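ok trying again, last paste got cut off:
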Amino acid sequence: NKTSHLLGHSTLEVICFVIIWALQLLIIQKGMETVRRFQDWAGPAVWVMMLLLAIYLCVKSGSFAFTSDIPMDVLREKTADAGIPGDPGSWTALFGVAAIWVTYFSALYLNFCDFARYAPDNAALRKGNIWGLPVNLILFSLVAGVTTIAAYDVYHEVLLHPDQISAKFDSWFLAALAALTFAVATLGINVVANFVSPAFDFSNVFPRQINFKKGGYIAALIALVLYP
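nice, full thing came through this time. structure:
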């Protein structure tokens, strides 16, 4: 119920938070091996859903394009809060987005070693970085662009987020599948960016008393206390 509130949030938000919080605890039950296995299928699952979403909208719109006829004033209005200089599609905006990408991924450098230590050799590490960062990011951006353009042709709205598009689905099954995929994506990002690092931090402070799993429990409890 969106009208009821708990701890300063809607009841639905609290329920969703607790569910995701509990699922993260399940993911670390067997340490980094469980995290690795989860990420092995979570990433591809998000890709599959994005491709299905793009194909569905392209078929429904009857077109496939990397360019659109979305009016510039509409694009400016929809991207006004993004903090990107210049008009959408301009070189200024492109460099602004690139700067945001660098800033976003710079935060992950703080716990890069928590994952790099498990690479068998430097060659595997470089290969993973190339495929996971520039190649994956560029291809995903292209798919997102095609999806946004097709969604505009279908719904006559600029929908910049997948959840906004899925809310337009006539099929409850597709909407539920999209919601499940978003949950998996959220879990994957949170575990990598916000869970693994503090778990190792706590275990490094007291290595004899705290292992990775216990460090994860401590981090989870702190997150639960700070949530309100």
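cool. The radius of gyration is 20 Å. DSSP finds nine helices and two strands in the chain.
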